[in-house]
Amino acid sequence: MTLQIMTDHILPLASLPSHSPLGHALAQPLLLGLFLPIHNGGWTMSTLPRDTDWTFDYNAALTKQAEQLGFDLAFGPAHWLSKGGFGGETKYREQSLDAFIATCALAAITNRILLVSTIHILYGPWHPLHLAKFGATLDHIAKGRWGLNIVTGFRKDEWAMFGQQQIEHDTRYQIADEYVDILSKLWTHEQNLDYHSARWQLQQAFVTPKPQYGRPILVSATSSPAGIASAVRHSDLIFITSPTGARFEKAIGALPQLNASVKEQAAIVGRDVRTLINPMIICRETEREAQEVYRSILAKADQGAIDGFFHSHATGDSKSWRGHERDERTVGGNIQLIGTPEQIVDQLQQLKSAGCDGIQICFFDYEPELAYFGERVIPLLEQAGLRKPIAQPHAPTP
Question: How many domains does the chain have?
């Protein structure tokens, strides 16, 4: 018997306990997340010197630093690239840690921060029973702090690495809906699960231990109509992208309508979601200094990597990031915030007013810029009512 895909049983945000890790995070007026640079080059295709590094030790130190500063979320991206990465002098993103494995390790050395792994659920493919068991286990290790960022794979070259033909865009999201439906059943059902469909067969399947707060945190990053329709049915956090490019002045005018549309679609299916956006933040004591950093990055642009990046993405069918120009891609971030601490806070206030519930930050030179953000920007965010002070976490496990 083929079971109809139903996602209305997926626990909405309102039903998750307020004392859960996600519940604590959602008490913040503006969620703060860090996009971890677990691949070489981070988000910036430039040869301008910096210490940003893809290694686990560097990213572990960043995550503990972000937790100490009160960040709510650390996020690991996923890439599948051939030798040389996107190319250029830097061999951009040739070196990369697996987001799932890295997150597992980070769970053991942190106490409060939410940890989100990006997983291409259709490559291979991952069997939902495997991921349900792995996810429930990690949920217990992380004490409810683990989240799954569900992606379906938009680049043909990635699919080819797994010996697969790329599945049509909208069909991928239909399959993802079914996949998440199975995960949710395995995480919540107290009896064995029999499930039979054209793609998945499960006989007497059972997962224990059950996740501590009903299920792990679910995340999606999408911009297409099919992707958003899927995300609002099962995700808690949805990464949106500016449809007009990374320049703040243009993006801020388009975001209110986009955020409103996503939340209206969620309401129609009886769910409540939060939207996040990914800014590159370049913050210095003066606007002139910040702009000089921006220009210096562009002056050392890795043209070969940029060419490779654009070529690879052009072969895919993603609807995200389509409005981004070459210079915007070089510097990185879905939207770019450049200026003094006061200017950055004003821009973040505008993003909040535009309907963004949180930000997932990337920096050019992570460690010193994250420290500066904590010292100069976070206190101003608290003064502006965008952040509430948090109790400091216990000292992390050595």
Answer: 1
